[in-house]
Amino acid sequence: MANLIFFIALLVLLLPISAALLDAWLTDANATFYGDMYGGGTMQGACGYGDLYKQGYGLETTALSTALFNNGYACGACFEIVCRNIPGWNYCKKGSIVVTATNFCPPNYGGGTGHWCNPPYKHFDLSMKMFTTIAEYRAGIVPIYYRRVPCHKQSGVKFELKGNPYWFMVLVYNVGNAGDVYGVRIKGSNTGWLTMSKNWGQNWDIRGNLVGQRLSFLVTTSDGKTLELEDVAPSNWQFGQSYEGKYNF
Ligand SMILES: *[C@@H]1O[C@H](CO)[C@@H](O)[C@H](O)[C@H]1NC(C)=O
Protein backbone atom coordinates (compact mmCIF):
# COMPACT_ATOMS: atom_id res chain seq x y z
CA MET A 1 0.00 0.00 0.00
CA ALA A 2 2.74 2.40 1.01
CA ASN A 3 4.54 1.44 -2.17
CA LEU A 4 1.45 2.19 -4.23
CA ILE A 5 0.99 5.61 -2.62
CA PHE A 6 4.66 6.35 -3.24
CA PHE A 7 4.30 5.27 -6.85
CA ILE A 8 1.24 7.49 -7.39
CA ALA A 9 2.97 10.42 -5.71
CA LEU A 10 5.96 9.92 -8.00
CA LEU A 11 3.70 9.80 -11.03
CA VAL A 12 1.91 12.99 -10.02
CA LEU A 13 5.28 14.67 -9.52
CA LEU A 14 6.70 13.51 -12.84
CA LEU A 15 3.68 14.18 -15.03
CA PRO A 16 4.02 17.98 -15.21
CA ILE A 17 7.75 17.60 -15.95
CA SER A 18 7.26 15.32 -18.94
CA ALA A 19 4.36 17.48 -20.11
CA ALA A 20 6.62 20.53 -19.98
CA LEU A 21 9.33 18.77 -22.02
CA LEU A 22 6.77 17.71 -24.56
CA ASP A 23 5.34 21.21 -24.75
CA ALA A 24 8.78 22.59 -25.47
CA TRP A 25 9.04 20.45 -28.60
CA LEU A 26 5.39 20.84 -29.61
CA THR A 27 5.43 24.61 -29.82
CA ASP A 28 4.03 25.32 -33.24
CA ALA A 29 4.83 28.06 -35.69
CA ASN A 30 5.09 28.51 -39.45
CA ALA A 31 8.14 28.77 -41.66
CA THR A 32 8.94 30.36 -45.01
CA PHE A 33 12.27 31.21 -46.64
CA TYR A 34 14.11 34.22 -47.98
CA GLY A 35 17.26 34.79 -50.00
CA ASP A 36 18.72 32.31 -52.46
CA MET A 37 20.33 28.87 -52.23
CA TYR A 38 23.78 30.42 -51.65
CA GLY A 39 22.82 32.79 -48.86
CA GLY A 40 22.32 35.87 -51.05
CA GLY A 41 19.86 38.03 -49.10
CA THR A 42 20.46 36.34 -45.75
CA MET A 43 23.83 37.92 -44.95
CA GLN A 44 24.06 41.03 -42.69
CA GLY A 45 20.62 41.60 -41.15
CA ALA A 46 19.02 43.03 -38.02
CA CYS A 47 21.21 41.13 -35.55
CA GLY A 48 24.28 43.06 -36.67
CA TYR A 49 26.21 40.01 -37.84
CA GLY A 50 28.07 40.52 -41.11
CA ASP A 51 29.39 37.83 -43.45
CA LEU A 52 27.67 34.80 -41.92
CA TYR A 53 30.10 32.41 -43.64
CA LYS A 54 33.13 34.13 -42.08
CA GLN A 55 31.40 34.32 -38.71
CA GLY A 56 30.61 30.60 -38.70
CA TYR A 57 26.82 30.72 -39.01
CA GLY A 58 26.85 29.83 -42.71
CA LEU A 59 23.43 29.11 -44.17
CA GLU A 60 22.09 27.53 -40.99
CA THR A 61 20.19 30.68 -40.11
CA THR A 62 16.73 32.14 -39.66
CA ALA A 63 14.96 35.46 -39.31
CA LEU A 64 12.43 35.66 -36.46
CA SER A 65 9.04 37.37 -36.30
CA THR A 66 8.37 40.07 -33.68
CA ALA A 67 6.88 37.47 -31.31
CA LEU A 68 10.22 35.60 -31.19
CA PHE A 69 12.82 38.31 -31.93
CA ASN A 70 12.55 39.92 -28.47
CA ASN A 71 13.94 43.22 -29.73
CA GLY A 72 17.13 41.57 -30.89
CA TYR A 73 17.90 39.85 -27.60
CA ALA A 74 17.06 36.52 -29.31
CA CYS A 75 19.86 37.05 -31.84
CA GLY A 76 22.30 34.15 -31.58
CA ALA A 77 19.79 31.71 -30.06
CA CYS A 78 19.56 28.27 -31.69
CA PHE A 79 16.37 26.45 -32.63
CA GLU A 80 15.65 22.93 -33.81
CA ILE A 81 12.81 22.76 -36.31
CA VAL A 82 10.78 19.95 -37.87
CA CYS A 83 8.18 20.28 -40.59
CA ARG A 84 4.65 19.33 -39.49
CA ASN A 85 2.55 17.43 -42.01
CA ILE A 86 -1.15 18.12 -41.97
CA PRO A 87 -3.65 15.62 -43.44
CA GLY A 88 -3.81 15.64 -47.23
CA TRP A 89 -0.65 17.67 -47.45
CA ASN A 90 2.73 16.04 -48.02
CA TYR A 91 5.30 18.77 -48.32
CA CYS A 92 7.49 17.74 -45.39
CA LYS A 93 10.87 16.04 -45.64
CA LYS A 94 12.19 13.82 -42.84
CA GLY A 95 14.55 15.04 -40.15
CA SER A 96 15.17 18.30 -38.37
CA ILE A 97 17.38 21.33 -38.81
CA VAL A 98 19.19 23.50 -36.26
CA VAL A 99 19.40 27.19 -37.09
CA THR A 100 20.73 30.33 -35.40
CA ALA A 101 18.66 33.53 -35.26
CA THR A 102 20.55 36.12 -37.31
CA ASN A 103 17.82 38.43 -38.60
CA PHE A 104 14.38 39.97 -38.03
CA CYS A 105 11.32 39.19 -40.13
CA PRO A 106 9.42 42.49 -40.06
CA PRO A 107 5.64 42.73 -39.82
CA ASN A 108 3.71 43.61 -42.96
CA TYR A 109 0.72 45.80 -42.20
CA GLY A 110 0.05 46.47 -45.90
CA GLY A 111 -2.24 44.61 -48.28
CA GLY A 112 -1.52 41.42 -50.21
CA THR A 113 -0.10 38.22 -48.81
CA GLY A 114 2.69 37.70 -46.32
CA HIS A 115 1.41 38.78 -42.93
CA TRP A 116 2.96 35.76 -41.27
CA CYS A 117 5.57 37.76 -39.36
CA ASN A 118 3.00 40.11 -37.83
CA PRO A 119 2.42 39.91 -34.06
CA PRO A 120 1.40 37.62 -32.46
CA TYR A 121 2.52 34.98 -35.00
CA LYS A 122 5.55 32.87 -34.21
CA HIS A 123 7.32 32.64 -37.52
CA PHE A 124 10.69 31.49 -38.84
CA ASP A 125 11.85 32.97 -42.14
CA LEU A 126 14.59 30.44 -42.94
CA SER A 127 17.43 30.58 -45.43
CA MET A 128 16.32 28.79 -48.60
CA LYS A 129 18.89 26.05 -47.96
CA MET A 130 17.42 25.27 -44.53
CA PHE A 131 13.80 25.50 -45.67
CA THR A 132 14.36 23.04 -48.52
CA THR A 133 16.10 20.66 -46.09
CA ILE A 134 12.83 20.10 -44.19
CA ALA A 135 10.19 20.90 -46.84
CA GLU A 136 9.52 20.93 -50.56
CA TYR A 137 10.44 24.25 -52.17
CA ARG A 138 6.97 24.49 -53.79
CA ALA A 139 5.24 24.43 -50.36
CA GLY A 140 6.25 28.08 -49.86
CA ILE A 141 5.03 28.11 -46.25
CA VAL A 142 4.86 25.15 -43.87
CA PRO A 143 3.64 24.53 -40.33
CA ILE A 144 6.46 23.45 -38.02
CA TYR A 145 7.31 22.42 -34.48
CA TYR A 146 10.31 24.06 -32.86
CA ARG A 147 12.32 24.05 -29.66
CA ARG A 148 15.30 25.96 -28.27
CA VAL A 149 18.50 23.91 -28.30
CA PRO A 150 22.06 24.68 -27.14
CA CYS A 151 24.30 26.28 -29.76
CA HIS A 152 27.42 24.23 -30.49
CA LYS A 153 30.39 26.46 -31.30
CA GLN A 154 34.00 25.79 -32.10
CA SER A 155 36.55 28.07 -30.39
CA GLY A 156 35.94 31.03 -28.11
CA VAL A 157 33.38 33.84 -28.08
CA LYS A 158 34.34 36.42 -30.71
CA PHE A 159 34.27 40.21 -30.62
CA GLU A 160 34.33 42.60 -33.58
CA LEU A 161 35.48 46.03 -32.42
CA LYS A 162 33.87 49.11 -33.99
CA GLY A 163 33.40 52.83 -33.40
CA ASN A 164 35.92 55.61 -32.89
CA PRO A 165 38.04 57.12 -30.09
CA TYR A 166 34.93 58.73 -28.53
CA TRP A 167 32.45 55.91 -28.89
CA PHE A 168 33.09 52.20 -28.75
CA MET A 169 30.91 49.40 -30.07
CA VAL A 170 31.38 45.64 -30.10
CA LEU A 171 29.57 42.88 -31.97
CA VAL A 172 29.50 39.71 -29.85
CA TYR A 173 29.24 36.52 -31.93
CA ASN A 174 30.07 32.81 -32.06
CA VAL A 175 28.40 32.44 -28.64
CA GLY A 176 27.86 28.82 -27.53
CA ASN A 177 25.12 27.17 -25.47
CA ALA A 178 22.26 29.66 -24.85
CA GLY A 179 23.75 31.76 -27.68
CA ASP A 180 21.73 34.91 -27.02
CA VAL A 181 23.59 37.65 -25.15
CA TYR A 182 21.66 39.68 -22.57
CA GLY A 183 24.49 41.76 -21.10
CA VAL A 184 28.06 42.85 -21.84
CA ARG A 185 30.60 44.54 -19.59
CA ILE A 186 34.03 45.71 -20.71
CA LYS A 187 37.26 46.45 -18.89
CA GLY A 188 40.19 48.33 -20.36
CA SER A 189 43.64 47.84 -18.78
CA ASN A 190 43.14 51.31 -17.20
CA THR A 191 39.45 51.02 -16.21
CA GLY A 192 37.21 48.98 -13.98
CA TRP A 193 34.28 46.98 -15.34
CA LEU A 194 31.96 49.20 -17.40
CA THR A 195 28.42 48.19 -18.39
CA MET A 196 27.72 48.41 -22.11
CA SER A 197 24.28 49.19 -23.62
CA LYS A 198 22.61 47.17 -26.31
CA ASN A 199 22.70 49.34 -29.43
CA TRP A 200 21.11 47.08 -32.05
CA GLY A 201 21.07 43.33 -32.65
CA GLN A 202 24.08 41.96 -30.79
CA ASN A 203 26.01 45.24 -31.06
CA TRP A 204 26.83 46.68 -27.64
CA ASP A 205 28.19 50.18 -27.09
CA ILE A 206 29.66 52.60 -24.56
CA ARG A 207 30.97 56.17 -24.69
CA GLY A 208 34.65 56.76 -24.00
CA ASN A 209 38.11 56.10 -25.33
CA LEU A 210 39.54 52.61 -24.99
CA VAL A 211 42.22 52.97 -27.68
CA GLY A 212 45.60 51.59 -26.57
CA GLN A 213 44.17 49.49 -23.72
CA ARG A 214 43.95 45.71 -23.44
CA LEU A 215 40.26 44.75 -23.45
CA SER A 216 38.48 42.15 -21.32
CA PHE A 217 34.79 41.24 -21.45
CA LEU A 218 32.11 39.81 -19.16
CA VAL A 219 29.34 38.32 -21.29
CA THR A 220 25.98 37.24 -19.84
CA THR A 221 23.56 35.02 -21.80
CA SER A 222 19.78 34.62 -21.46
CA ASP A 223 20.17 31.65 -19.07
CA GLY A 224 21.92 33.96 -16.56
CA LYS A 225 25.39 32.48 -17.10
CA THR A 226 28.30 34.94 -17.19
CA LEU A 227 31.68 34.24 -18.76
CA GLU A 228 34.77 36.32 -18.04
CA LEU A 229 37.12 36.64 -20.98
CA GLU A 230 40.36 38.33 -20.04
CA ASP A 231 42.64 40.22 -22.40
CA VAL A 232 40.62 39.35 -25.48
CA ALA A 233 42.22 42.21 -27.44
CA PRO A 234 45.87 43.31 -27.06
CA SER A 235 46.63 47.01 -26.47
CA ASN A 236 47.28 47.57 -30.20
CA TRP A 237 43.79 46.39 -31.22
CA GLN A 238 42.22 48.06 -34.26
CA PHE A 239 38.68 49.18 -35.09
CA GLY A 240 37.13 46.79 -37.60
CA GLN A 241 39.12 43.78 -36.36
CA SER A 242 37.75 40.68 -34.63
CA TYR A 243 39.31 39.10 -31.56
CA GLU A 244 38.62 35.75 -29.94
CA GLY A 245 38.18 35.00 -26.25
CA LYS A 246 39.91 31.93 -24.78
CA TYR A 247 36.65 30.24 -23.80
CA ASN A 248 33.06 29.72 -24.78
CA PHE A 249 29.88 29.00 -22.83
C1 LIG B 1 0.30 29.31 -39.28
O1 LIG B 1 -0.41 29.73 -40.42
C2 LIG B 1 -1.78 29.40 -40.41
C3 LIG B 1 -2.35 29.75 -41.76
O2 LIG B 1 -2.07 31.08 -42.11
C4 LIG B 1 -2.43 30.15 -39.25
O3 LIG B 1 -3.81 29.84 -39.19
C5 LIG B 1 -1.75 29.76 -37.95
O4 LIG B 1 -2.30 30.51 -36.89
C6 LIG B 1 -0.28 29.96 -38.03
N1 LIG B 1 0.36 29.42 -36.82
C7 LIG B 1 1.09 30.16 -35.98
C8 LIG B 1 1.61 29.44 -34.76
O5 LIG B 1 1.35 31.34 -36.15
UniProtKB/TrEMBL annotation:
Q: Which Pfam families match?
A: DPBB_1, Expansin_C
Primary localisation category: secreted
Tell me the function of this protein: Causes loosening and extension of plant cell walls by disrupting non-covalent bonding between cellulose microfibrils and matrix glucans. No enzymatic activity has been found.
Membrane-topology annotation of the record: Peripheral membrane protein
Know the name of this protein?
A: Expansin
Limits of the Expansin-like EG45 domain: 44-156
CDD domains recorded for this chain?
DPBB_EXPA_N
Q: Where is the signal peptide?
A: 1-19
Intracellular or extracellular location(s): Secreted, Cell wall; Membrane
Kindly state which keywords UniProt assigns to this record, in alphabetical order: Cell wall, Cell wall biogenesis/degradation, Membrane, Secreted, Signal
Instruction: Tell me which family the UniProt entry assigns to this protein.
Output: Belongs to the expansin family. Expansin A subfamily.
* PROSITE patterns, A to Z: EXPANSIN_CBD (PS50843), EXPANSIN_EG45 (PS50842)
- Name all Expansin-like CBD domain ranges: 166-245
User: Which residue windows are transmembrane per the record?
Assistant: none
Q: Keyword Acetylation, does the record have it?
A: no
Q: Which organism is it from?
A: Stylosanthes scabra
> What PANTHER family does its record include?
EXPANSIN-A15
Q: Which domain of life is it from?
A: Eukaryota
